[in-house]
Amino acid sequence: MAPMDGTAFAAVSDDAATTSAPIPNPSREVIGCDALSRHFGQVAALDDVTFRVGEGEFLAIMGPSGSGKTTLLNILSLLDAPTSGSYRLDGIETANLTEKDRVVIRREKIGLVFQQFHLIPYLSAVENVMLAQHYHSVADRDEALEALERVGLAERAGHLPSQLSGGEQQRVCIARALINAPALILADEPTGNLDADNERRVMKLLESLRAEGRTIVLVTHNPALGRQADRILRLEHGRKA
Amino acid sequence: MATDRNASGGGGAAARPLGPRARMFTLMVVRALTKRGSRLTVALGAIAVGAAVVFALTSLYFDISIKMSEELRTFGPNIIISPHVDEKQGGESRLADASLLESAAKSLPADRMVGATPYLYGVVRLDRGNAVLVGADMAAMRALAPYWQVDGGWIAASFDDRNAMVGRRLATSMGLKVGDPVTIVNRDRSTQASVTIKGIMDTGEAEDDQIFINLALAQKILNEPGKANFAMASIVADGAEADSLAASIGQRFPGIEARPIRKVSEADGQILGKIDGLMALVALIILVITTLCVNATLTAMVAERTPQIGLQKAIGASDGSIVAQFLAETALVCLVAVAIGIVGGFLLAQLLGQAVFSAWVTFRPGMVPLTLGLCLIAALAAAMLPIRGAVRVVPARVLRGE
């Protein structure tokens, strides 16, 4: 797994730039996809895609609508399975995993950030973060509050999602994605519903995570955001462009 | 911190403290319910109504046997106790010790006893002709035969040897009126007694042709000291119970046999059986309606929460934890609804008890777990399909808004 020491959030704040996390080893594979394909009936949403992501790497997946970005992200997050090909996550071959195993690996190794935030409406910001802790191991309010503090939302911890702005909701999502110190952070258009100011804040958070040595895969339409990644994987009609 | 949680979290559930997990689970369940006022009210109301009806009907079900038997006791005695008749010896009935018959009657449960008395029959001569004389405990007779329509008054004490009661037809044929003196003479004219007609009764049965006096006086007139033909008792029991109680007398008193008077005890059983069956049917229908209503509400709740279920699964919720959450929510709603329903059901039982039996229905603590159990079964059965739907939510689809 990626660094999971007690300083998981040390660098995750608007102003943070330093980290005490272990130096990542880019030669160590976190994602390994070989000839990955996903068909829906006769339609090939993803066709023969091969790539690797090393530890600490920041990969942007880009492409027009319908190019297979989300399909690929669903496979990478173990929410879907490829029709053919191979996907290794942190050294684990996922092809023959049961649904139960996929759930366990997802909560242990993956942090998800969605374009539409997806917070539980009846839980407060801190409780939404604690929910991810609860499914992973055990909820710890202090730790969840610390996570919110480091995304700049300590004072909004008790608010319901409906009382938060879009940018604040997305930062709660990032805190929730990071709370279990996952090996991989998958972000699907995380700034797609945000204004420019909030977009900048969220990207700064992702950059600081990259600086900390986190492995990040970002799906985006936005070329400006893509340029901040170490590498860009371009998709067109389900294939690598 | 994350390190500590991860160390315990990766090691399996056994190493994890239960407290925080239970607290978070409870928080999710309570919040999910309290933030859904309208839906929760519908589910709560449906189960509460179901619980109220089930509680009221089951309370009545267990009270009704006693209440109905008490009502039916106004139709007269339902057990006859007599000396054993040996068919091989001609089957002739014989007299028994009245005290033995009384003891046998007293062996019946005192809390179920309405009344009992020995009877001694004989033919006597009155001033204007012969008549059947009946000696009985006239103080007990009033409880035993409350359906008698009496002009004048009852003989109130069992030691009263100055008064008699006469059946309507006998009084009419002999021109007797309340307050008239009557001389009762033994058939061999060896014994006689003068009494006053205290009451004239209409019974609609053979008693309308008979004259009733207290047992001791009858024994004296008929020269049968300490004897009686049989005893009759009225007890609060339905057909099967009456059979059982009668059988127990036969076992305890050799030479004595007791048997239910069928026309009454069987009527008890048939009426009670029909009413019990009707109440069980009504309770079942209400439970089915409750189940359908809760099912519809939960289905709507699951549909409404599909994106949240998808999110929970995406961030690591297992099917088991989704099922546990919905079951806990259903059970919690059920508990609150049953608590409300029991209060309402007890009040409903009182209304029904007063309307039908003019009696209060007893609060039976045993009905609480029974009602809770039945409602839990109904609610959980109602939750099965919606929960199955929740488990089948595909996160990748719902998170994309499909």
UniProtKB/TrEMBL annotation, chain A:
Gene3D superfamilies xref list: P-loop containing nucleotide triphosphate hydrolases
Pfam families attached to this UniProt entry: ABC_tran
InterPro entries: AAA+_ATPase, ABC_transporter-like_ATP-bd, ABC_transporter-like_CS, ABC_transpr_LolD-like, MacB-like_ATP-bd, P-loop_NTPase
GO CC, one annotated term: plasma membrane
Span of domain ABC transporter: 31-241
Alphabetical list of PROSITE patterns matching this protein: ABC_TRANSPORTER_1, ABC_TRANSPORTER_2
Organism domain of life: Bacteria
UniProt keyword list: ATP-binding, Cell inner membrane, Cell membrane, Membrane, Nucleotide-binding, Translocase, Transport
GO molecular function terms attached to this record: ATP binding; ATP hydrolysis activity; transmembrane transporter activity
Tagged with keyword Transferase: no
SUPFAM superfamilies documented for this protein: P-loop containing nucleoside triphosphate hydrolases
Similarity remark: Belongs to the ABC transporter superfamily. Macrolide exporter (TC 3.A.1.122) family.
Name assigned to this protein: Putative ABC transport system ATP-binding protein
Organism: Consotaella salsifontis
From TrEMBL, chain B:
Start and end residues of each ABC3 transporter permease C-terminal domain: 281-392
Gene Ontology cellular component terms for the protein in this record: plasma membrane
Pfam families for this protein: FtsX, MacB_PCD
Domain of life: Bacteria
Molecular function (Gene Ontology), one example: transmembrane transporter activity
Membrane-spanning residues: 40-62, 278-302, 322-347, 367-387
Record-annotated MacB-like periplasmic core domain positions: 43-250
Alphabetical keyword list: Cell membrane, Membrane, Transmembrane, Transmembrane helix
Membrane topology: Multi-pass membrane protein
Name of the protein in its database record: Putative ABC transport system permease protein
Lineage: Bacteria, Pseudomonadati, Pseudomonadota, Alphaproteobacteria, Hyphomicrobiales
